[in-house]
Amino acid sequence: MNVDGKLSGLRSLLSRDRVLGIIIGVALGLLFISVLALWMRVLMIYFVAGSFGLILVLPIVFGIMAGLLIVDQWVSLEPKWPTLIILAVILWPTAIYLPFGVHIVRLHVTVPPQIPVYPTSQHEKTTVELGGYETFGDRVHMWFTTETDSSTVLSYYREELLQMGWEEGPEHFIERKSDGTPYWFRHKTTSRSLHIKVEPMDVDGRTQLEIVFGL
Q: Per the CB 3.0–4.6 Å rule, which of 80, 116, 150, 211 could disulfide with 198?
């Protein structure tokens, strides 16, 4: 094959429609890997080592095959090179972070309604902490302030949680510290846990309350 033939074959291999298929395929592979990492968490490291990296390579390979097939079957336009570059820059990070973002949003939406709120308390903020599953799972932290004293607040939560199917955790899980008192509950039928930490009333007559919902 002469030089012109080789160049023609290279241009055919790197045609814009095939590059589009590769970009889509890599995104599909990254999305699969991200979902797998979200599901397995720290165990993903052991699977990567045990498979000699194939658990990362194979989804990309099959993704590229699927991307090329998608382009061949349903895409008739050839995007310009700048468009392809922009698409890759946007699509690949999105594929990596999308499963984690959806999961965090889901926890923000679904967990707070499961927890009673003290009637006169004011919600300050909610954060999500993703766990590794070896030491702890995902946690949703919610902070509230109220002008009610801590003993009344704790009595309210104890009564409400016991009625909702929770039970008090073992006494050795309850620790009294100078910066607050955490109380621990667990659900009777699930593996969920709930920690309540109430700070002493401050000089302004407000009590700070932190609730940690563990999945």
A: 150
